[in-house]
Amino acid sequence: MEYQKLRLMTRFIIGLVYYEIFYLLVSLNKLKKKTAITRSRVEILTEFKLIVDSMEQPRERPCDNEEQKEYFSGKKKQHTFKNEFITLPAM
Known about the structure:
alpha+beta; three-stranded antiparallel beta sheet; 2 helices; 3 strands
């Protein structure tokens, strides 16, 4: 009986490890695709003069402590969404 429980737990843990490895590989593939798209956009946009601007919009205070750190603005002394805009000047 004890051997069967140990065997079942071992299979369960191995299944979890396989799932985590699969998830990491899928995430890496998505990251590679995004990086390739970003590189191609940067190559295209190097020919133009761009206008870059940013702003912060107030938001409710998140419950999660790590999320609070991510959204807290020392400049505004509150939690905000950070937005960045990149545009071409009007011709």
